[in-house]
Amino acid sequence: MLKHRGFPGRLPGTDFQFTIRRANKQGATKIIRRERYKDRAAADRRADAGFMAALWAQFGEEEFERGNLDAGRLSWLIGREVVFATDPANPADYEQLLKIDVARAKASFPEVFEDPDAFDWDDDADEEDDWA
Prior knowledge:
By secondary structure, this protein is mainly α. It is built from five helices and three strands; from the N terminus they run αβαββααα.
């Protein structure tokens, strides 16, 4: 399983997980399309936007391997803002290639593209500097 170095492990200040630490011994968790209803909590919507911002910052328009990206978090975006880059797709494979559908991502998360600094991924590093 590829570990995406530099990718945030979670949304700062929350327990919304973006990556996993180790591969599942029983195989990769299958990515399934989850419906995002209009009445979702604001925190859930913020986590989706934060995850999209992290994907965009790390990969841009390039294809990327699923690797250690959290299947649950990907499931909120798959089939819409994130698509399988190969056909046939294997949603239960750590090596599955994915790609951001930029047009749909910009429509769904305009704040990510209008203000790329809205998510401060260096919060932890700044706090460490304060203690030094």
